[in-house]
Amino acid sequence: MNRQILFFDIDGTLVDSTTHIVPASTRAALQKLKKAGHILCISTGRSLQSVTDGHFDELIDWDIFLCNNGQAIYNHDKSLLHMTPIPRESVEACIQAAETQEAPLLIMGKKQILTRKPNAYVITSAEFFKESIPDVEAYDGSDVIMMIAYGPMGYAYEEYMAIPSVDVMIGQSTYADVVLKGFSKAIGIRFILDHFQMQDYLAFGDSLNDVEMLQHARIGVAMGNAHEEAKRAADIITRDVSEDGIYHALRQMRLLDL
């Protein structure tokens, strides 16, 4: 097969969100794909700092880190290639919404800050991702790529959904991603395709923030443990991440003789 560009979500796709283990078969598959000359990209809602904290940057010599659901894109040495910030007035409206609920809001810009002392939902979310909790600081008005709101499982986050210029993507734990309205991993991927002068891509994902990425891929692969909407958007539904789903999908696609 000709040189391909592949995008991999992290949580629930590369790594089991329950055990926090990357299957050995996935590690081996990534190594073989890289050796064969394919372009390998992380595509995640996580910030670059979170990717690094989880040591996912060490799985392979990644060509691209598409972070914050596509709003921040970095090359293989983690230099920023492209960033699309959220309007400042929308950031301030989200901060006010969080204050009304007496809840913390995580703000991701030139650095990560938390607007209030972490509560139980922040701690649960941090444990889910196995990542550190940022320091509490006041927002200084600088560019913001993404925010994270917190609440109990099943919370609707309606106070954030009413704010112009942002979309809310409810996560798998006690959090929701607050991102630029109308933006998605798929939009960030278009920038990367232009960068590499590629026409199409392959994608692997499991969550709501992977739906558009899977829909627009030449071949979109949903993990067996994926959200039902992600499965409906995919061309292939493979096994769970813990059951060597990426390995089996690559074999099914005959991308490599694994």
From TrEMBL:
Protein name per Swiss-Prot or TrEMBL: Cof-like hydrolase
Residues annotated as transmembrane: none
Example GO molecular function: phosphatase activity
UniProt keywords, alphabetically: Hydrolase
Any Gene Ontology CC annotation: cytosol
A family per Pfam: Hydrolase_3
Taxonomic superkingdom: Bacteria
